[in-house]
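Troubleshooting log. The previous run stalled partway through. Resubmitting the same two chains, unchanged.
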Amino acid sequence: MTTTVVPRAARTARRSRGSRRTAVAWLFLAPFALVFLLYTAIPTVAALGFSLTDLRGTDLRNPFAVDFTGLENYLRLFQDEIFLRDILNTALFVAVGVPLTMGIGFALALVLNAGIRRLRGMFRVVFFAPVVTNVVAVALIWQYAFNANGTVNKVLGTVGFAGPNWLDDPNLAMPVVILLGVWRNFGTAMVLFLAGLQAIPEDVYEAASIDGAGRWRQLRHITLPLLLPTTLMVSVLLTVFYLQVFDEPYLLTNGGPLGSTESVALYTYHQFGSGEFGMSSAASFVMLVLVMLVSIVQFRLLRPRA
Amino acid sequence: MTTVATVRDTEMIDDQVAVRHRSVTPSLLYGALVLCALLTMLPFVWVISGSLRSLDEIRSDPGAWLPHHITLDNFTRLFATEGFGGFMANSIVVAIIVVAGNIVAASAAGYALAKLDFAGKRLAFGAVMAAMMVPFTAVFVTQFVITVDLGLADTLTGIALPGVAMPMSVFIMRQYAMSIPGDLLEAARIDGAGEFRIFFRIFLPLAGPAVATITIMSFLTSWNNFIWPLIVAQSMSSYTLPVGLAATSQAASHVTDYGLQLAGAIVVMLPVLVLFLFLQRYFVQGIAGTGMR
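Second attempt completed without errors. Output:
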């Protein structure tokens, strides 16, 4: 806030220069803003609206047939055993997938950071390759390998085990689906942890070793605390990602056998597929809320204690 | 988001090799890493060896490790399959639209958010950040309805359009633009150059690395995208490669033609893997820099 007296003419000139600047800036933003409005902002608000109606796919040509039903979709959801089962499945996915992915990623980052100089680039390429591969392609490989007569059972056979039909067994399908998720994502966790490890200043370790702290104590008292922001980011990222898991169960099992691998996202998709747009939107909004809750809780729990 | 500044160039990770834990037995670490690397590569080995086996060989012994006779028969059959060339052409067209759109939309938006002062700037940046957090599954129904309303259902434009404005690209561009000194632009401004001139003549030529990063990231996202094309594409003529591959494999699931599927898997994976081998630094940088996939 400037207190000097500015002549009126100069003031209006400045203001019009300011609004001109604003107009130019929004011209730069326009291409992004238009698509953003159309495909993110409006859909988010509209999804909430849809979830309060009985909109069906067949109503798209005739919007007047749609009734406002309030919270009915949400009440139906929470009485739907299939939806409740899918929430449990998704929770299982998160509870097993997140620690596994983080653990493997963290361990590899530590090892790569701890003095592996030669071949480091090669290892990084290898561990990161699953992240960039196409999930449809990988799912086909997984089906081929975990088939009753597939390569995995072939290997088990050579050590004397008769392998099961993995993807047709309600108890075994989920582990295989989770394994695919972990395989595709630990590279991301590794790269983020590596970046975090690199951000820790070298002299902290030097000071600690002068004080006689061993490697284990350094890990516990320096690396882990200083890595907390990275750990928080990776865990939120993975939790949010696994909460929405769709590709892996859709492609490997389409939620089966007997719904044992159906996730909330897959429920949303199946409702959408059967034309229940209102129900589908309600389920997706439950997921949106879950995603937000998890982020808030994790930020609260892992906030650095300064 | 704190990693952005630290991983400007991921080669830092290579160069600043820690001397900290010198006492760890290197051979032990290498052994563990090699084992992990082999396990990670197993699926790739399966797909290559499987795709090179003849149909008869796969039928008689589906799970064998290595082909007895190497044959390219599966690939010839794949390219002779009806629609396959079309899926590929569709994937390429969609990727071109998405990449071009990202370069235009993100470089302009990123420049404005980093280097221009204007009313609504904080709101605009907040919207970009928030957009990164909206789960796709929360909005795809409404996105689909909008696509239908625009008359873009079952078209390649409809498949490509939402990917044109990736918030992640804007974020990468903005971070990069922040690192370009303002004096440079200010000097041009004093010389009377307009904002568009400054953008095209000064900013864009300097933004090469950021443009490269968003080109690769958006190509990867578009090429690998599965659910959205699955929803929008309703007839075979607009299937992209992943959708086409999934559809063919599901349609034929009672007589699974693994040879064909694995050959298809290779064709889908190969462009990205080759690109990745040459440009892995940018891939890793983009992902480490934004913490997004």
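Takeaways: DSSP finds 16 helices and no strands in chain B. Chain B touches chain A through 112 residues (CB under 8 Å).
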